Amino acid sequence: MKAKTYILKNVRLETGFEFDGKEVISTNTALFCVEVEEGKIKGIKPNTANANAIDAKGHLMLPAFKDMHAHLDKMLFGLPWEAVSPTRHTVKDMIAYEQKMIPEWLSTSVERTGKMLNFLQAYGTDFIRSHFNVDPTSGLKSLTNLEKALASKKHTVEAELVAFPQHGLYYTDTLPILKDVAKLDAVSFIGGVDPYSLDGSIEKSMEQITQLALDNNKGIDIHLHEMGESGMKTIEFLIDRTLENPQLKGKAFVSHAFALSRLTNVEAEKIAARLAEAGVGIVSSVPFGNMIMPIPTLRKYGVEVLIGNDNIQDHWNTFGSGNMLQKANLIAELYGYGTEFGLSRTLAFATRYKLPLDNNGNQQWPKVGDEASMVFVDASCSAEAVSRISPVTSLIHKGNIVF
C-alpha cells in the first residue's frame, strides 16, 4: 500500500521501565492510536475504538529493522538447495568458482533478488546495506540487476550500496572498473577484501580504496577475514587514514574484522579506544564457536557495531536466517544480556540503535514527526521480542504498509 493518511489503533507502545530499587524488572506498555500522514507519524493519541482505523491487535510497535551487511546480487536464493562445497576452502577457491558461475547467476538475479527482498521484509527489515560485485566477470551487470530489483520495491525498502571488489583489486584486473563505479551516485561505499592475502599488499590496496572514497565522497566498508598480524595491520591502517581525513569519520567500516576475536582483553580495549577515536565502525554477522567477537568491549568505548545476516543461501555459507531479531537474540545469549534491561538494550543491534526507551526508561520513540518506518511483533515488550524471537506481524516503510 502506497503512503497515505491512516490511523492505527490498538498499537502497543513501551512507556517506561518498572524498577525494584535500581534494577529494571519489567517494561510498562499501553495501547495507543497512531496517525500516519505522508510517510510521517502525525499523532500519537489515547487508544479509541475507531471503526475506520487499522487494527494492530495489541501487537508491539518497534522501529523497523536494519540489515547492515548483505549480498543481494549473487546469492543462490531462489535456486535449488545447495549446501557449501567441502572442497572450496579459501577466498581464492571462491573467486575461481564465482568466475565460472556469475554469468549463470546474473541471468536470473533480478527476479531472485526480489524474492530475497520479500524474505527479508517478512522478518521486519526495511533497510539494507548491500555489497555488489565489481570484477572483470561481473562488469557492471551486478549493479544494474540489483538496481532493477530495488527499483521494483522502491516504496517498501531502502538500500545503500557498497562497490565490492570481491576478486581483489590486483588479483584480477578490477581497479579500472572500480574507479568508474566509484563515480556513480548509486554507490555509497567503496569496499575491499583481504588486501594482504589476496592482493599481496595492505598498503597498495588500502591506499587505492581510501583515495577512491575521498575523491568521490564515499564511505569505506572493507571485508576483512584475515586473522593475526595482517588483519590487525589492515584495521590500524584504516584507523590511521580516517584520523588523517576526518571526512571519513562515521563513514569507514570494517566488516567481519575476525582478527579482533583473537585479542586479549587488554588488546581489545586498546583497539576499541582507537576505533572510537577515529569513528571507524565494525560490521559483524556475529560469528561464534571459536571466533567470539569483543562486541561488549567495542560498545563500551562507543564503537558503532552494525549487524547483518551476510550469507543466507549462497556458496559461502547457508546459516544466515534473514531475521535481525535472531541476530539480536544471538548477541544476548553469547554475551549474557539476559535481564529485562539487557535484552531491551540488545534490540538496538537490530534497529541501528533506535530504541523505544532510553536507558532511564524515558520514552524516546516514536515521536510526532518521526519517519513512519516500523515493525509490529507479537510480543509484550522488546525484551520478550529479543528473547523469544517473536513473530513479525506487519511492516511499514515510510508510511507504506508492506504487509
TrEMBL record:
Database matches in CDD domains: Bact_CD
Q: Which GO terms describe its molecular function?
A: hydrolase activity, acting on carbon-nitrogen (but not peptide) bonds, in cyclic amidines
Q: What superkingdom heads the lineage?
A: Bacteria
The molecule here is called: Deaminase
Matching InterPro entries: Metal-dep_hydrolase_composite, Metal_Hydrolase, Metallo-hydrolase_Enzymes
Q: Which organism is it from?
A: Sphingobacterium siyangense
